[in-house]
Each structure stands twice: as C-alpha cells, then as structure tokens.
Design brief:
It is built from nine helices and no strands. It has helices spanning 5-12, 17-21, 25-44, 53-69, 73-81, 91-98, 103-131, 136-143, 145-171. Keywords: Membrane, Transmembrane, Transmembrane helix.
Length: 188
Amino acid sequence: MRKSKFLTFFWSLLPGAGQMYLGLMRRGVSLMALFFGAIAVSGWLNIGLFLFAIPVIWFYAFFDSMNLGSLPYDALQYRRACDDFLWKPSDMEGLKKRLGGKTQIWAGLGCIALGLYVLLDNLLMPYLRRALAHSGLFWDIVNSLPTLVVALAVIALGFYLVIGRNKREKEIPFVPYQGEEESEHDGE
C-alpha cells in the first residue's frame, strides 16, 4: 500500500519519524537517536560545539524520508527488507583501516580534548571571567583562545595533508603494468 505524501511530509518534520512512517524502523531510530542525542549532549555538558550537528541531522533526515517516500513501491519494499541501523559494529573495521589501526588512540585523544574543553569552558572560564573582569586586554586574549586553537589545528591539518601526501607518494613508487611474461611452461 502506498503511503500518503502529506503524512510523509508531516512525519519528516521530526528526524527519524518519517523513516518510521515509511516502515524503516531501524533507520528512523538511528536518526532520532542522533538528533536527540546531539541535543542532550549539548545541553547536559553545556557544549555549544554540538549544536552544529542538529541542523545537519535534521536536514539529512528530512530529505532522506522525502526521497524514500518518492520511491516506487517495489523499491521501498526492498529498502524495508534491507532496513538496518545507520552505524554497525562492522563499520568500525573500515574506520580502523583508514586510521591505520590507531582507532583507539584517536578516540582517546578525542575524549581527552573534549573533556579538557568541557572543564575549561564550564569550570575554569566562569572563575576567570570574575577574576579578570577589569583586565580588558588579557580578557580579550582569553576570549580569542578557542578561535586561535581551532585556526592552529586547521593549519596543522593542512600541513599534515600536504606533507603526509608527499611522503606517501615517495614511499610507494608507481610501477606501470608491463603485462604478464610468458614462462617456459606456457607453450607445452
């Protein structure tokens, strides 16, 4: 049975609900968990950094459900049969290969950086604001620290991409394919 275009649009306004209406429960739950998880983490830890994810997830979920709703009936039935969560434990294997087997190190560094950011922004900064309320120049420098850190990180990433690419190209020389050589046993 074909789903109503109006109801598909209506339920698409809530991330994940449009997918659930179309019968893709696992996909819908995944999107809903991402959307409300980003809101919860942002509010609970008082991290405005996660707020950028909310509109991205919303737009993805909206257009995904609208596109799924416009599929022919047979294609939608196939999608329902193949319904799965957006992330799976098996997806981590590809991520491990791309990160060079150092997934745990990168995840740990990410957790440390996030924890330091939360401590700095929520615990240390309010006391610094009170203590340095009358020191204009120093306070301007402290306020611009996050921008400075992000700018330096982007510059460092750029250098890594440029220099790292050159090193990889030097390590693995390109050898053109010459074709297979005939051995003495091929003619017998």
